[in-house]
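Collaborator request, handled under Task 6.
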Amino acid sequence: MMYGRYYHNIALNRFLDQDFSSYHVLELDLQQGSLSQNNMASLASSLTQCIHLRKLTLLIRSKKLNDDMISNLASELPNCSQLQSLTLYLKANQIKAKGLINLSSCLVKCFNLKSLNLNLSKNEIGNEGVVSMSQFLQDCKNLEELNLNLRKTGINEQTVITLSSNISKCVILKSLTLNLSQNNIDSQGSAGLFPSLLNIQSLLNLQLKLVQNQLQFDQDPVSTFAQTDCKNLQSFSLYLNYNKVNSEGIVFITSIVDQLTNLNSLSISLNNNKIDEKNSSKLGTLLKSCSNIQILNLDVKKSIIGEQGVSNIAIGLRNCQNINNLTLNLSESQLNCTDVACLAYSLQQLPKLENIDLDFKQNEINEQGAQSLGNSLANCLNLKNLKLSLSSNNIGEEGASFLGSALGKSSSIQNLFIDLGSNEIRAEGVKDLAVGLRSCLSLSSLNVNFNFNNIRQKGVNELAQALASFQNLRNLILDISENNLMQVATQNLCNDLAKCPNLVSLKINLTLNKIGSQGLSHIASSLNKFKNLISLSLILCHNQIGEKGAVHLSQALQENQTLIDLYIDINENNHEYGEIAIKQNTLKMKRLVNRIIEEY
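Structure tokens returned to the collaborator:
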């Protein structure tokens, strides 16, 4: 099977000179090319040779593709008689109703087409184009997978109703992703959307994106749709961010979930709606419908849910006894330590939890909340992957210490992300957290953010010493930007990290410190002490680095024998010649596969 990938307009010209008869899979990215009527017609003509082509991906983000161009291209698609999968990324071009109608009329002639991914966002196709397209789609009899992006295309409620009705006639459709965001659709449109789509009996996966419309879901769910035929649906995702959803809306959503009896994955995103303490109790009722769910994602960011709302969510979570993967976003929701303790207690009541992602940024959790959270997570005995976003929460040294001590009791955690940025954990907090985590014997991947925490030199020393004893650590991401670090900090840090015997991937963010040329030289001198390191990312912006330090780094990189992936960002420093030296010397690294040197 031959696979082709070509970039930019010059690559398109090379593509047009080739023999395509043997291609089965083809991807063209014309993002940077300037398209013309002639070369688009040539591309269309070339596709007629692709008699064995099964999968075609075209990414055209030129902003110049018009109705005539897309019509010429579409007219040749039926000649690819073996085509089963088609992706057309046509975002932000000049396609209108005429072009979409011509494209759709050709797609229906691709008789073997099973998978269609069509991104038409930010094109002025309007109601006429979408209605006509949907009429053609219902005749694609073999279509099993449809991904349709109509974000910001100027359609109204009636068009949504017609679109969903016609899609529902694709009787063997198994997976549907429909993006109708930013179209000013109100509740009338949703009233027709759900009854149609939830009656596709073959559907297994449904994802609806209705972000930034005018939806309230204030209709009576019983009168909106009767019993759904979508009994086989296994995964349902509903994105309703930036709408007007209130308690009636949550009741509406709950009535949908109640009918999806075979559901094992549910994602509901409601951030930036009208959810407050009065109506947030309905969220608990929604969760009580999730007793069979294994994967749950709930996003109610920027919602003032209050004590009673938190309690109801916590009670609802305890009902999800089969859940093994939980993502919960309650950032910017005025949570306090009592709220977090209530939620945390529910987590330890879920015996099958393996993956947890908690986003509690910008609340008022403080030390006590961090302690409650850590203690409960330590009691999740099967936990393997944990992500904690706790930045801007007035967590100090004791809170970090509590977290480290509690999480250190977990023998099963393999991958850990902790964001403690913009708190006040200082040097002792960093030390205690790292020392506690040292007891996580299964830990292989660690991502910690201590950005803007005033940890200073002492904190970095303590952190480095603790990390040096992580015997099983393979991947480390460390953000210690904006911490008043001087040049000596990097010497101890890198020397100690090099003692991690199994470390293969390292990323360090030192932005907005004062390590200078000497600090960068310390980093350079330590590189060859990492015996197994194959991937390195250094973010060193705003660090008063001069040419001497940059040149030293470039020489060390040239001598390195293990690195395969390299990313360096040294913008906003004083090292023009040094940057040139880094670029030249990294080109001499024989093992290097991926190389990115950011330029100002």
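The cover message to the collaborator said: "The domain at 1-155 is CATH 3.80.10.10 (Leucine-rich repeat, LRR (right-handed beta-alpha superhelix)). The CA atoms of residues 281 and 309 lie 5 Å apart. Please let us know whether this matches your experimental observations."
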